[in-house]
Amino acid sequence: MAFGPGISVPTVAGARVVYPARIVAVWGALTAASVGLGYIIRRSKLWLVRETGTDPFGWFNLLSREPAADTENAEDTDTYSVADLKERLDWEREWWRRKARSGGRSVVVAPVVEELTFRGGPFLLALTLDGYRLPLLVCGSVLWAYLHTLNPRGSRRPTVPVFVGGLLPLYLWVVGLWWVAVLVHAANNAVAMAVEIGREWWRRWRHSFTPGEEYTVTVDDQGPQPEVHGLYQAHTPANETLHVANVEPGATTRVRVATTVGFHGYAYPVAESHDESE
Q: What is this structure's pTM?
C-alpha cells in the first residue's frame, strides 16, 4: 500500500520505488522502540540490583556495560577543589567547539564508515557467496550494536536497543538501497546530536549563572559548612546562592562561576582583577 508520494531510486540491482514518508514513519517507530527498550533495560537492572544487592548473572552488564566505577560525569565527584573547578570551567568553555567537531564526525564520517564496514562488508561477502545476505547483514548489525556498549559513558548504549534502532538501515541494505541506509544513519545521528545540544542549551538557559561570570559573594556563616561536594554556600548581592571552594565562613570574596550541576552554581575564588590569567 502506497504511503505518500513514491520516488524511483537506483539500487544495486536496478531501480526501486521508495516512499520517503514511509521511511520516516518506520524510523520514528523504531527510534521510539529503541528508546523504550533502553529505558526498560535500565529500570530492570536497577530493580535487580536493588532486590538482590548484586547482578548474579551479569546479563545486564553484557547488554549495557555500565561499570559503577565510571565517574566521568561531574555529578559523580565527591568533593571539588579549586583545580577541579578550573578544569570544569575549561570544559564548559570548550563544550560547543568540541561538540561541533564531534558532530561533524557523527553526522558525516561515522554513518559512512559504520555502514560500509558493518553492513557493506557482509553485503559484499553475501554477493561473493551468492547467498546468505540476510544472516550476514544481521551478524554485522549485531556486532555494530555491541560496539556501542564500548563508547564513552555519555554516548554508551545497550546492545539490544541499538540493534532495534538499526533495523531500518539493515532492511535498506537487504533490498540494495545502501546509499539510502547511509542517509538514514546520518539523519538519525543528526537528530541525536540536535537533542543533545538542545539539552545542553536548556541546562544553561534555566540557570541565572553562566560559566566564566564573576560575582562578589559573602560566604554563609550561619549553617553547617561545607555543604554539597565540600563547597561553601555563599550569596551574591542579589541574594542568589553559589557553592564556592576554598573560602572561609563569613568572608566576602570575588568568585568565578565554573559550572552548574543540577540547580546549583559552583564557583572558585579569584583575584579582584578581571584579567587574572588562568
A: 0.74
